[in-house]
UniProtKB/TrEMBL annotation:
PROSITE patterns: ABC_TM1. The chain crosses the membrane at residues 12-33, 73-97, 109-131, 143-165, 186-209, 245-266. This is Sugar ABC transporter permease. It comes from Paenibacillus agaridevorans. It is a multi-pass membrane protein. GO terms for biological process: transmembrane transport. One of its GO terms (cellular component) is plasma membrane. It holds the Pfam family BPD_transp_1. It is found in: Cell membrane. Its main location: membrane. It comes from the Bacteria.
Length: 281
């Protein structure tokens, strides 16, 4: 009787998980299928499938409607995102290592100030930051994204790495010092290999957030030739009064492919980093 009840509970759990999983994946399925529909089928029927499909929505969407195509927006986004992610990882690791492993004057105050920035709404610094970048001549460039990333301006990532460093035994540092390693060598050869899960988590988060960023991109970038994917998608809606929605949806599918590929490639480290960050050994 108990085995039958357990079997029924497992079956019910699997059914609920399948239903919940389908409900979460359904918007993505609709996006892919609708990218192959005509405008009439997209807005004329609530059915997931249509009677006929178009096969050129991806090719036309990639080619674009003006001087610049989606290929240019794709390359621009990589030019913006890749340095931002690299500088974010490097700077956050260095700052987190300093807070986690060293004692220095005003450490508590500086750490408190850093944590206070997590509670500061981004809208409160938007105008001062824009004025600063304008005076520095950085508008319509990618510098407002890349340069701050090189100075560990994301307190969330720094705090994540601090908690991970604190979970690593200090005996590792002491053993390395006995072998003649300095602080930099300890970080590079001893701690960084153990911090792969946290580093991958930082990289994935920053890549996805920067790749999908629309608000900051539209503020600092004004030239069409420098538009990112998010701005390119928005521009296709302004191209004419008659929008080819299948092309817009097709490019939306293309735009999420790098994020999906990156996540599944680093899924092992990402899950491990999220589950272990903040746990002290």
């Amino acid at each position: 009787m108990t085995d039958a009840r357990n079997g029924s509970n497992k079956t019910l759990s699997y059914v609920l998980l399948v239903v919940l999983g389908f409900a979460m994946v359904y918007p993505l399925i609709w996006l892919v299928v609708s990218s192959l529909k005509t405008n009439a089928d997209i807005f004329g029927s609530s059915s997931l499938f249509a009677g006929s499909y178009v096969t050129d929505s991806y090719a036309k969407g990639w080619a674009g409607t003006g001087q610049y195509g989606f290929k240019d927006f794709y390359l621009n986004t990589f030019v913006l995102v890749v340095p931002t992610v690299i500088f974010t990882i490097v700077s956050s690791v260095v700052v987190a290592y300093g807070f986690a492993r060293f004692r220095f004057p005003l450490q508590t105050i500086l750490f408190s100030l850093m944590m206070a920035t997590l509670m500061l709404p981004d809208s409160t610094i938007m105008i001062p930051r824009y004025i600063l970048f304008n005076k520095m001549g950085w508008l319509d460039t990618y510098l407002p994204f890349i340069v701050p990333a090189a100075f560990a301006t994301s307190a969330f990532f720094v705090y994540m790495l601090i908690q991970f460093f604190r979970g690593l035994p200090r005996e590792l540092d002491e053993s390395a010092k006995i072998d003649g390693c300095n602080s930099f060598t300890i970080l590079i050869r001893i701690l960084l290999p153990l911090c792969k899960p946290a580093i991958f988590s930082v990289g994935i988060f920053q890549f996805i957030w920067t790749w999908n960023d629309f608000f900051n991109s539209i503020i600092y970038i004004s030239s069409v030739k420098k538009f990112t994917v998010s701005l390119g998608l928005r521009m296709t809606l302004d191209a004419s009064s008659a929008v080819s929605w299948n092309q817009v949806l097709a490019m939306s599918v293309v735009s999420i492919v790098p994020c999906i590929i990156l996540f599944f490639m680093a899924q092992k480290y990402f899950v491990e980093g999220i589950s272990t960050t903040g746990l002290k050994g």
